[in-house]
């Protein structure tokens, strides 16, 4: 008996549909480049990306926006006159928090290049919905302060709807598309010693990508020592062996994150997580690696 065809949830299908809208590439590509050009690489880029935190900063900041605005909506719905001042204050807090949240989100979105076009498109609509929510809550606060609380509540409710739609797309990007997730999280490499290539084939200064039980591994010989790091950059999946060696670090060719060859630590972002490294030994003329424990 044939199994019935199960359709994806409608909200998931809607997000997938946005990802197929090629018309979004027109504004999306130049806007992404403008954001990347506007944020200086180095300490500022690292701070906005969350390199100092150990994971992306944007998800943490979203709570500072969603929490106050949602609380204000609850007070609008069930609070009495005594709650008016608190609701207005909460909306103001959310507006203030939206600025750094938008900056970190735009930074993360711009760094999805180069990536699947659908990610850029969904991320663009996610940002536009957040901007719409910000405008509606700002107008709500202005109406409240102008004495028109009924209009203010309606505008806040509309802002809440835009925020909910944006949140769905944000969840789609993170949990369905893996944006912001360390690219090596589910590929830790072989636990046992695994042969890669003949030691004689890796000369001084050479860097190559090999496969160890399906895991891409970059091998580098520097100063007579062989280093082995996961070849897929934890940030956005760039191939590290295509990057350059600088001061004992490998620099990712996509967004210039720098990882120490010695231990995979992040020397420079925007990467937030260290690069997995492997133990290396020469056995019977072959370079073998295994996961470092």
Instruction: Report the sheet with the most strands, covering strand number, pairing sense and barrel closure.
Output: 6 strands, antiparallel
Spatial ordering of strands, largest sheet: 1-10-9-4-3-2
- How many β strands by DSSP? 10
Structural class: alpha+beta
Global shape: elongated
Q: What pattern of helices and strands is seen along the backbone?
A: HHHHHHHEEEEEEEEEE
Q: Can you tell me the residue ranges where pLDDT is under 50 for at least 5 consecutive residues?
A: none
| Rg calculated over all Cα atoms | 24 Å
Number of continuous helical runs: 7
Question: Helices, strands, pairings?
Answer:
Elements: H1 10-19, H2 25-38, H3 43-49, H4 58-78, H5 84-110, H6 117-145, H7 149-176, E1 194-198, E2 207-212, E3 215-222, E4 225-230, E5 244-246, E6 249-251, E7 258-260, E8 266-268, E9 277-283, E10 286-291
Antiparallel strand pairs: 1-10, 2-3, 3-4, 4-9, 5-6, 6-7, 7-8, 9-10
Helix pairs in contact: 1-6, 2-5, 4-5, 4-7, 5-6, 6-7
């Amino acid at each position: 008996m044939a199994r019935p065809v199960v359709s994806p949830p409608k909200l998931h299908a809607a997000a997938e549909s946005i990802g197929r809208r090629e018309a979004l590439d027109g504004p999306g590509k130049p806007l992404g480049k403008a954001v990347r050009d506007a944020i200086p690489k180095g300490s500022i880029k690292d701070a906005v990306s969350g390199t100092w935190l150990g994971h992306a900063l944007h998800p943490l900041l979203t709570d500072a926006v969603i929490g106050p605005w949602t609380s204000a909506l609850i007070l609008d719905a069930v609070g009495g006159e005594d709650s008016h001042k608190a609701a207005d204050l909460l909306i103001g807090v959310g507006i203030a928090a939206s600025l750094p949240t938008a900056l970190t989100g735009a930074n993360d979105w711009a760094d999805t290049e180069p990536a699947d076009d659908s990610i850029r498109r969904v991320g663009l609509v996610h940002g536009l919905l957040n901007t719409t929510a910000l405008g509606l809550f700002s107008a709500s606060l202005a109406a409240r302060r102008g004495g028109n609380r009924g209009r203010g509540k309606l505008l806040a409710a509309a802002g809440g709807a835009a925020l909910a739609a944006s949140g769905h797309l944000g969840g789609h990007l993170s949990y369905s598309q893996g944006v912001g997730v360390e690219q090596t999280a589910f590929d830790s490499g072989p636990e046992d010693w695994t042969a890669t290539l003949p030691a004689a084939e890796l000369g001084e200064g050479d860097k190559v990508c090999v496969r160890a039980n399906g895991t891409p591994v970059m091998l580098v010989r520097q100063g007579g020592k062989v280093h082995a790091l996961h070849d897929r950059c934890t940030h956005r999946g760039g191939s590290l062996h295509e990057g350059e060696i600088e001061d004992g670090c490998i620099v990712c060719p996509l967004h210039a994150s720098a990882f120490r060859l010695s231990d995979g630590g992040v020397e420079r972002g925007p990467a937030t997580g260290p690069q997995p490294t492997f133990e290396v030994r020469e056995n019977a003329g072959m370079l073998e690696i295994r996961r470092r424990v």
